[in-house]
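Recap slide: Branched-chain-amino-acid aminotransferase, sequence and predicted structure.
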Amino acid sequence: MRSLTAALALLLASSCQGFVAPSHNSHQIITTTTPSSTQLKKQPLSRLSVATDINAVGAPGTADLPWSELGFEFRPTKSHLRMTYRDGKWQEPEMVESPYINVHIGATALHYGQACFEGLKAFAHEDGSVNLFRPDENAKRINRSGHRVMMPEIPVETFIKACNDVVKDNVAYVPPYGSGGALYLRPLLFGSGPRIGLQPAEEYTFIVMVIPVGDYYKGGLAAPVNGLIVDDYDRAAPKGVGAAKVAGNYAADLIPNMAAKKKGFPICLYLDAATHTLVEEFSTSNFIGIDNENKKYITPKSDSVLPSITNKSLQTLAKDEGMTVEQRDIEVAELSTFDEVIACGTAVVVTPIGSLTRFDGNGEESKYQFTEDVGETTRRLYDTVRNIQNGEIEDTHNWNYKVE
Ligand SMILES: Cc1ncc(COP(=O)(O)O)c(C=O)c1O
């Protein structure tokens, strides 16, 4: 397990000249006040206070919530973290209790969609500790997304510390170990300053809100769902913003997504916008095809697909168990060769796909059928990643960051 302190030390050591990294097994924690990124960079970790017990952040799961009934929807918590970029620099972050935000009527996020967001989870372990899953990856991705729509960079260590501090302040809302739930973190970066001519804003707001969410698959992975291949709409254009987690990508998915649900397909698969011959990704999750006979894990390579952190993790686990991972073009016709198809993302980890249906212009249907029950590879990969997140097996890749 990697602690936040160790992670910060590594990051700081690589970015600050003359910084001496502390030993990895030190038990330092950061004090409750939230230093700015500049302070973080300058402050030697030896000045930070030392935790003596594992529950220094407090006990998870003490809020009065029906832990076994949580779904994936908004619920109020104690606070969210807020930080403003003004006069060319990030200001001090603060914890805010009100879930409302006062935004200028000319904010670029509202008019021009200058906004991007992230999604990650924190899990309670049996020892009472709370652990973020791969927040460094979300930090890197929010900066790639922000860069694409001309927003200022959030230093990786500032992002991780923001996640750490907001979880710590809301530790009562972290679902307890054994509930299968998690605290879902939704970092959001948007242009909050006014512009009427199209230009980037001068002011930005970064928030991290948290929501306790339940285990999507209570009692184990659910039966596969049927997906629809979308031909009437595209999610992302070549050289567009598909690889960025920008807000507008999701508004563009609303009509096809809701229409598919009405037709009885809970999930939509998008193709490449230029030719509609290649598989790209689902609305909010990446595509994985499994060929069990040849022990292959195949996922699309496209500049229009969002690089999923779950997909990246599952690829590593698949390689660990000897599978060959191929990231390459997948023709629609190749769908007939897969034994199992998975949609993967932070919210549910994996959604097993039972079939994919495509209608041609005349309403003729072609259907690609996969395993009727949850496939063996899907189940194995899911169990492994969930066991790592829950601290139940060794975290050999150092994906868990202990909240301190
Ligand atoms: C378009 C899209 N693809 C894939 C994913 C899955 O990404 P991750 O595994 O990082 O949650 C998401 C969710 O963030 C998404 O919105």
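The chain has two domains: 2-103+121-183, 225-387.
The chain is about 20% helix and 25% strand.
(End of recap.)
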